[in-house]
Amino acid sequence: MARIVQVDMRMIDLVPKVKRVDAIQAFISQETPIVTITDSDGVIGTGYSYTIGTGGPAVMSLLERTLAPALIGKDADRIDGIWRDLLFTTHATAVGAITSLALAAIDTALWDLRCHKQKLPLWKAAGGNRECMPLYTTEGGWLHLETSALVDDALAAQAAGFRGSKIKIGKEQLSDDAERLDAVRSAVGGAYEVMTDANQSFSLSEAIRRARMLEDYKIGWFEEPLRADNVLAHVELARRTSVPIAVGESIYSISQFKDYLQSGAASIVQVDVARIGGITPWLKTAHLAEAFNVTVCPHFLMELHLPLVCAVSNARWLEYIPQLDTITTEQIRIEDGMAIPSNAAGLGIAWDWAAIKAAELVHHTEIEN
What we know:
The chain is an alpha/beta fold. The protein contains twelve helices and 16 strands.
């Protein structure tokens, strides 16, 4: 049995390469906790999570003061048992974003460690369902962009082989959203997928009104139309529209996804590996969605989600928003709009440790006494 003997925790702040604005926020930084776990055999695993803009120090405090000390001496291969033990240790703050993000940094590191020991890439270790995944892009669809810019980006993505683009909606007037979508749909044609994302900005009545407009443009899905904690409103919206309803980036437990799936409130699950608490609960959520014949299209974190969507059978899309370019030595492989997971052992992320060290805001180490 290889025991955990050291846990290194650091946080960096990743500045997005492009301005990102949606219906409820603009963000110019991304506080990113990174956890590295070493076992008694000398094998190392690295994982991470993220916050949009703020909250990183709170995640780091939970890691440093509570979770990392509880890892020392544990069998590194008991990933599910460790996840459950740590969840119980933090039961007073679960379910919630800070706890989930801290758990995710640890859980992804443990999976990376396991894959290195087994000399397997994550996409095979977690299921090995398929060797590539189609991409859609969000980077050119932000709410502040002019309509002409949306069209140009969608056409460029289409020419590069991408299968779809996501357009942020939530303009004050429905007609403004409609004009933007009409321009994009007219430019790319009917065979190219166009998705929309409202970032929880609408009331139920307004979401129903906007959904009727979305039907005119053959929209692939209506993402986060309402507050994520209002399952019944999503049930009513799903009943009133033919546009698929997508939820998940603001859901922090398997049980919450179960409520959506059982009630028919969503037909696309966008489970986020960081916000659900790691790879362990991500896979369980994906398999739960499979039992309901529901598609998985995860939110953000494309570098980490790529091997996961290739591991399961019910994934359909990978969202293109580059996150780790400045702290990795290799980017994900893309051919004709298809993302191809790495066959290197581990998560498939080639960390640039010199760049990470230069960007460190916090660094803490927990070592076996």
